[in-house]
Specification:
168 residues; mainly alpha; three-stranded antiparallel beta sheet; 3 strands; 55% helix
């Protein structure tokens, strides 16, 4: 670690390494700070922020449905944790679970009309928080730049190979 406590190693001399690590740390710290603020918001009603995220994700899927595995790919939750969460959401009437046609092991999670209504209701309140916390810190041009950069970073991941074992 350097003297400021960052994860940048002094022995890493590859061009762009320090800048990439510093940019990542800044992005990560900003995300953590915002997530903590969002979690403290009184907008979630009976849901947790993660449960809302499942409903939000499903609301953007064709037919309001996705495989459980697909929901897990965009989440930091482990498969068992996500499965339990989906069970709770199903118990509350916000989603249904069913088989995937042609895949005996697959589970299809579908947003119910009540789940869609709750997602929209909470979503309206959440967007106001986003406007306050994010839009209150950045102007329109900066917001457009941030979106372009984060979209580019996310989409580039598919083309960057995973490191080989033992390689940082």
């Amino acid at each position: 670690m350097d003297t400021k406590g960052s994860a940048v190693s002094e022995s890493t001399d590859l061009p762009g390494t320090r800048e990439a690590a510093q940019a990542w740390e800044s992005l990560f710290r900003a995300q953590v700070a915002l997530m903590r603020r969002f979690q403290r918001d009184d907008v979630w009603g009976p849901l947790t922020i993660r449960e809302y995220d499942v409903l939000f994700t499903l609301s953007g899927c064709p037919g309001g449905a996705a495989r459980l595995r697909e929901l897990g790919e965009g989440s930091l939750l482990t498969q068992p944790s996500l499965s339990r969460m989906v069970e709770r959401l199903e118990h509350d009437g916000l989603v249904t679970r069913g088989p995937v046609e042609g895949d005996a092991r697959g589970v299809l999670v579908t947003l119910t009309p009540e789940g869609g209504r709750m997602q929209r209701e909470i979503g309206r309140r959440h967007v106001r928080s986003i406007r306050h916390l994010v839009g209150g810190a950045l102007d329109s041009e900066e917001l457009a730049t941030l979106r372009a950069l984060t979209d580019k970073l996310r989409s580039a991941q598919a083309d960057i190979p995973d490191p080989t074992p033992g390689t940082p």
